[in-house]
């Protein structure tokens, strides 16, 4: 195989070849590094390079295999890590100039699990300042671009991860999600992801000097972006393994028990006060028809308390951010991020004091209502965003910009507030006046049943195909 053939392989395909001995880890890493050299200068998706460490690790993996050592489930798979998570010897800058020299003393749990499984980290991907935008730009590393073109944002906060994996820089990309930061880049770039539920993936940064707020702990999760849904069944069982440094991790197997009969899927196109774009409606129709053909039972539903849950959850999060991060953002953030936060606080009036405590308590009400609802509907097929993905810097353009970027994302942050798993999967490429871009849908799963969401994503992908192939043809 040529290097081009190799970097195009999915993680599942890569492992099949490295396990069989058709490819070495040195082969797969060299191809990924060559691809990074070719396309990253235009994208700025990877901003911290692990080239020498990656080459040395690939050689070590090959040497171990040749000596008879067993191979891991991700043997030789090139991956990237987001710059807000600790990787030994690298800066966890989080896109903030003041943190550019915050060198990690040890690996975060997800970094350790990936490497133990045989993955090779080839680079670290860009994020906005403080990882708190749905777009990716910062004064430290600059703007990340979407491989589909400059007309569409790469999303955020894992925008570098989404851009990299879809451009062919590694088969898997680490990211995280507190209000949509895995799913925004998946939607923007055409990747597939599943936002894990609360407690599923152990999380902790050895470089941190204080604990995060309670809502940050309960809403933020670690995860992966891939080019094909099957790769999530390969990789997610690895990162859900326990780590004693996260005392609230839920040590559950990746696969839950089989459900009786055809799985009921609640289906909705409800976008509340926001207009539903015809291409988003088409994406939902494609996904629904694919699930019907795959044997799922589809019923139209009225989701319980979705809008109130989303707004209460984000306003509560803004209250915690204002109280615990406000001073740091003012002191160390750029004028751009401060202006965006001011707009956030205007549109999502932060809950404070007793009101904030009451909303933290009400989180259980929303989660309970959905828990009961999902006894009948283990999966919900819904929009992620009501409109095609927005242009770069849309959130810097006043109230209307922030309303389009975050205000309309009710289906996103509501899932974080309740701690429910949610997958995003592309269905087609829309030829829009501003340029082509992928369209996607969201699949919400019952608590701790990420595997069900991935099964449904695989069924949709079987009908829709891999979006990366159309992207690479365009990039060529």
UniProtKB/TrEMBL annotation:
Residues 28-451 form the Amidase domain. Gene3D superfamilies: Amidase signature (AS) domain. SUPFAM superfamilies: Amidase signature (AS) enzymes (SSF75304). GO terms for molecular function: hydrolase activity. Keywords: Hydrolase. This is Amidase.
């Amino acid at each position: 195989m040529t290097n081009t053939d190799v970097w195009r392989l999915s993680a599942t395909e890569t492992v099949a070849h490295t396990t069989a001995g058709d490819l070495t880890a040195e082969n797969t890493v060299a191809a990924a590094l060559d691809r990074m050299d070719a396309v990253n200068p235009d994208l700025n998706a990877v901003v911290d390079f692990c080239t020498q460490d990656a080459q040395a690790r690939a050689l070590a993996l090959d040497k171990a295999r040749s000596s008879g050592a067993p191979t891991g489930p991700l043997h030789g798979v090139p991956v990237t890590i987001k710059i807000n998570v600790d990787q030994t010897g690298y800066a966890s800058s989080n896109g903030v100039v003041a943190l550019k020299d915050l060198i990690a003393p040890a690996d975060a749990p997800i970094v350790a699990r990936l490497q133990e499984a045989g993955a090779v980290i080839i680079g670290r991907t860009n994020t906005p300042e403080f990882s708190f935008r749905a777009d990716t730009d910062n004064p430290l590393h600059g703007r990340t671009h979407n491989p589909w073109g400059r007309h569409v944002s790469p999303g955020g906060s894992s925008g570098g991860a989404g851009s990299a994996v879809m451009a062919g820089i590694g088969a898997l990309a680490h990211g995280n999600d507190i209000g949509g930061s895995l799913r925004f880049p998946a939607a923007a770039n055409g990747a597939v992801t599943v936002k894990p539920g609360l407690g599923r993936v152990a999380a902790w940064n050895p470089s941190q000097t204080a604990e995060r707020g309670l809502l940050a702990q309960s809403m933020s999760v670690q995860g992966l972006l891939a080019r094909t849904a099957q790769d999530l069944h390969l990789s997610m069982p690895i990162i859900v393994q326990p780590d004693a440094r996260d005392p609230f991790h839920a040590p559950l197997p990746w696969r839950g028990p089989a459900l009786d009969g055809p799985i009921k899927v609640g289906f909705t196109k409800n976008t509340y006060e926001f207009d539903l774009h015809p291409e988003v409606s088409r994406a939902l129709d494609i996904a629904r028809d694919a699930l019907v053909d795959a044997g799922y039972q589809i019923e139209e539903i009225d989701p319980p308390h979705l809008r109130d849950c989303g707004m209460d959850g984000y306003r509560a999060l803004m209250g915690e951010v204002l109280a615990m991060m406000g001073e740091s953002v003012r002191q160390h953030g750029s004028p751009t991020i401060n202006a965006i936060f001011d707009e956030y606080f205007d549109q999502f009036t932060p809950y404070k004091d007793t009101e904030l405590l009451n909303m933290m308590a009400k989180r259980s009400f929303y989660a309970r209502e959905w828990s009961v609802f999902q006894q009948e509907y283990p999966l919900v097929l819904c929009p992620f965003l009501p409109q095609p993905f927005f242009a770069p810097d849309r959130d810097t353009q006043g109230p209307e910009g922030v309303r389009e970027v975050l205000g309309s994302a009710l289906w996103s942050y509501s899932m974080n507030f309740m701690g429910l798993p949610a997958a995003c999967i592309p269905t087609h490429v829309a030829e829009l006046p501003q340029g082509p871009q992928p369209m996607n849908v969201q699949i919400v799963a019952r608590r701790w049943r990420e595997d069900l969401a991935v099964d449904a994503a695989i069924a949709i992908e079987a009908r829709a195909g891999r979006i990366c192939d159309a992207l690479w043809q365009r990039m060529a």
